[in-house]
Amino acid sequence: MAIGLLEGTYGPDGFRTCEVTGLKIHRSAEVPLKMFGLTAVVALILGGTAALLVALTRWEAVGLLQPTQFYKYLSLHAWNLLIFWMVFMEVGILYVGGPIVLGRKLPGTKLAKIGWVVMVASAVLIEYAIWTTTYPNQQPLLTSYAPMKSSALFYLGVDTFILGTVVAALPFFACIWQEKSENPNGTLPLVTFGAFVTGIIAVEALLGGLITYVPTFLWRIGIVEHIDAAWYRQMYWIIGHGTQQINLAAMITSWYFMTHLTAGAEVVSEKVSRGAFILYLFFINMGAAHHLMADPALTAGWKMWNTSYAMYGAVLASLIHAFAIPAGIEAGRRKRGLGGDSWFGWLKTAPWHDPGFSATALSIILFGYLGGITGVLMGQMQLNTMRHNTLAVPGHFHGTVAVGTTLAFMGLLFYVIRLFFKKEWILDPLARLQPYLYGGAMSIASMAMMEAGIVWGVPRRDPVTTSIPGTSFSFSAASPMLAVLGIAAAVAVLAGAIFVLVAVGSLLFGKEARMRVPVPLSLTGSERPVHGFSMRGTLAMGVFFMLVFVLFYGLDWMWLSRLWTFGT
Amino acid sequence: MDEAQTRSGRPPAEGGGPQTPDEEIPWPQRVFDSVWMLALAAVVFFFLSYVVWGLIDLLSIRSGG
Amino acid sequence: MSSPIRSPDGVWWNWDVNGLERTWLGIAFVWCVILFGWMVGWRNLGAQNPTGPTTRISPDRYRAEVQAYEKEARETDQGLVPPGDDVYVGAQQWTWDGLPVVLEAGTQYRLHLSSYDVQHGFGLHREARMIEQFNLQVLPGYEWVVPIQFKHPGVYDVQCNEFCGVGHRTMHGRIIVE
What ipTM score was computed for the predicted complex, to two decimals? Predict the structure, then answer.
């Protein structure tokens, strides 16, 4: 059955032409893309199940898991979603952004398959290591901070997973190399450029992972004597946060792709959008420093230079994309005569019933407000001390990787199912509802965690709130908000299950796809270039966003100023 | 094969502005297109800003007593 | 059409940038300058910064320092009263050595933080108050001295917030400020 899903109909040269996009798609790219996409969904199922158990523990009225179990499922939740779901999707995205958009073969498809095998075997090894962890080993959670020891198999699995990913990414880079060699004066399509930037960010992150985890594995098996805690943290976060920056770059690349595919968007300025990707390329991984603000040892200068992505260079990039992508929809739709001439008609008439579009659009909005703002605030060196290691941190990153990247990837997968697997979606009303249900519930869960962390200082990575052994102290004031978290998370997991149901159901039982998108790509509209059309709706939304940003910025600094004084 | 297609089989490139294929490509566009050079420069920059500077900080810490 | 899945043709560098997009670029740039400037400014002029001298010290040596300090300190039923301006805290699985401690509001102290074993998180918040907390990382092998001065008397809870093993959730301590 699985092998059947990987098959398609190709010409004698191995290519087929997509009726919707006109892209020439080669078998050597499409088969690995499908393999990685399917594997990503398996990881989503595992991680989502673990999420439910974790959330129902933090909601103390349910208090599902005992502490040792809690740390096990928290580790499984983290590795399956933050790493396996994301990385398998992103290798697939490289294959789309590279050979498929360029209309080329994927060179070295064998490497893609070898990489996949190594990655899957490593993931299984990591799951096994976590599942069987017993004393003297402790659960790794995501970060496996030395000198606390985790299972040797865990560190080994991480090392081989990283190597497998590098191998799987090589065909993408080879494809870009071939393209640039054949067309030295040409310009890569924006989506390909975004995928390339994603790939280089990934290479940095993965190399950081090897620098961290190879010595740590050797230390665990007794070959290396000592692992310095500060060095470990600094190196670890290259892969720890770097993997999240891969998510960011891949998500934004997918936003450009999906808004074009589903809503008639165009690129309003090639140089501005490319400039933003280049800012990411240079600066985004410096954000690993966000995790080290409240650390000893590192100087304030290092902290501020790195946490700010070089004077906020990468934040400027995010703000650029935050305008360019909605503006692309607005000007693109005005150009095509969609939605009339009003300030927001283009947005109101957008295909909100289409789960590919709605997931993408919601992801853009929610990522910006929930993930983006909190990320910049927590990244400021001094503000970070009020949030570090509290539940506000998972609150922030569920605002980025859950309602941002995961929601965007779900939208992307809806169209992978239609355009690559060529299956029509089953249970249409559920498919249409799903992005709203997931986006809404997960937003509430994220905000609940932020409140508990910001207001009450509830720690992250902790199974209890009120019954803390050995003390009368408790975080009981936060209990109502943790109940909100539990309920919202359960609904979000349900929405994830609906996604899996529709996705897998469509693959197994869906009819042959009607190859269409809400706004046909052949509809190009006016002859005038897209940048000549009004973007006033987007600017208005942008200004509103900035006002919210400034408000929370001011509030945060006000709260900091009222704290006891500390520092030199 | 459609003569407008490149050898790689990609559909013809399109633009949204003045079509001047014989115009000289300005150097900023060339820089933006030099993906391997950009990648190398970016990795070097990151290595210096984050890894090397951070290591210097850690190695500069004196032993206490 | 300017498609994200097609190569732009010609000299795209010279294509116009929409006036409103330019406006946005200006707003974004100014905001980035403010973000950086404010943070750097606060480091130099503000009263809350996660900064302080760090020295390398082995866990055993730090434990000896803390024990020497505890010998000098005065024991009361509320907690230790430090002999001078130095307050020593040693984090270990799963307790805070040196806590509870009794301090005076308005007095400048030097808070010494290190760990005897694994990484811990010094999560300090003022009891029953909203949004009054800070969190510092405590590492074995490094002694961090952070100057600190409390403004208000009261009870301040310390809860470890870096996962440090099965007993992590029990790791609670207190600072009493009079």
Answer: 0.97
Identify whether A184 is preceded by a cis peptide bond (ω within 30 of 0): no
Task: Mark B51-60 as b/e (b = at least 16 C-beta within 10 Å).
Answer: bebbeebbee
Residue with tokens 């949030």: A387
Which tokens is A259 given? Answer: 């808004």
Q: CA-CA distance, A82 to A103, in Å (whole number)?
A: 31
Within 8 A of A15 by CB-CB distance, chain B residues are: 9
Interface of C with B (CB under 8 A): 1-3, 6-16, 54-57, 61, 65, 142-143
How many contacts, defined by CB atoms under 8 Å, are there between A and B?
99
Peptide bond before residue A355 is cis, with ω within 30 degrees of 0: no
Mean pLDDT across A242-263: 97
Nearest-Å Rg of the Cα atoms of chain B is 23
Q: Report pLDDT for B14.
A: 47
3-state secondary structure A316-374: HHHHHHHHHHHHHHHHHHHHCCCCCCCCCHHHHCCCCCCHHHHHHHHHHHHHHHHHHHH
C41-94 tens-digit pLDDT = 999 999 999 999 999 999 999 999 999 999 999 999 999 999 999 999 999 999
Conformational region of residue A144, where left means phi above 0, alpha means psi within -120 to 50, and beta covers everything else: left
Chain C interface disruption, residue of A176, A291, A565, most C CBs within 10 A: A565
Name the token pair of C45.
Answer: 């002029």
Residue A2 confidence (pLDDT): 62
* Total Cβ atoms within 10 A of residue C165: 18
